[in-house]
Amino acid sequence: MKSDIEQAVINAVEHATRTGRFSPDARTLIRDLFATLQPSDWPSWLLESIAAVPGEIEFIQECLIAQEESLKRRIARAARPDNETFFRILVRIGSPQAIGEPDMLFQAVQDGDPRIRGLALLRLGECRCDGIGQIILRGLDDPDPYVRKCAVEAVYISIGDRGTSAWERVLASERDTEVREAALVCLVRSGERGRDVMRRLRKNLAPRETEYIAKNISV
To answer: b vs e for 105-116, b when ≥16 Cβ sit within 10 Å of the residue's Cβ?
Structure first.
């Protein structure tokens, strides 16, 4: 805590001790401290001083509630992707390509958050611009399985049944079951081209994958 703020709190506590109540400005100052500071950063005397003021038990509860709400907001921010980038891409899904949009997406596929990278690949699948195909294919080698799954689906969105060689490569090397299932779904949706690939790979597929093929298409 900064020295000037700490002194202001000391003065507020001394005033409340004499009068029995914190002033409105003091209440705002102290409540904001609980909402912004980590508990380890509180002065050791703060809680005891507030508790010693007659009639301010409810104020202590307000401060602790403010702290709890602040912690919830911090957890929410840590658990979600960057809002500005994520939602800017999300609202574009299914919409006509905007001028300059691919450049923004080219940057987004390099983001540190896999959810943003994956969403950017899906949107790139809907766009038309030089270099998009290679960027989507590079997504198949992303370290995060969610991004690889999005890349598999982006290939289909972008070029339809002409993506069979990409999905064949996925099934030959991919270990994540969800990514493999996405590749199989794309092959099933690709008609005769997809059937040709599945005939070649059938002996190397897991029993569950072979069963899926048998239920959805005759190979």
So the answer is: beebbebebbbb
Q: Where are the domains of the chain?
A: 3-79, 83-216
User: CATH number of the domain at 83-216, out of 2.60.120.10, 1.20.120.1760, 1.25.10.10, 3.30.1360.120?
Assistant: 1.25.10.10
Residue 78: the pLDDT is 54
| Burial of residue 137, with CB atoms counted within 10 A of its CB: 0-12 exposed, 13-18 middle, 19 or more buried | middle
| Residue 100 Ramachandran class (φ > 0 left, ψ -120 to 50 alpha, else beta) | left
Res. 87: pLDDT tops 60:
yes
Cα–Cα distance between 143 and 81 in angstroms, integer?
A: 17
Q: What is the pLDDT of residues 111-142, one digit of tens each?
A: 888 988 999 999 999 998 888 999 999 999 99
Q: Could you give the CA distance from residue 151 to residue 141 in angstroms, rounded to a whole number?
A: 9
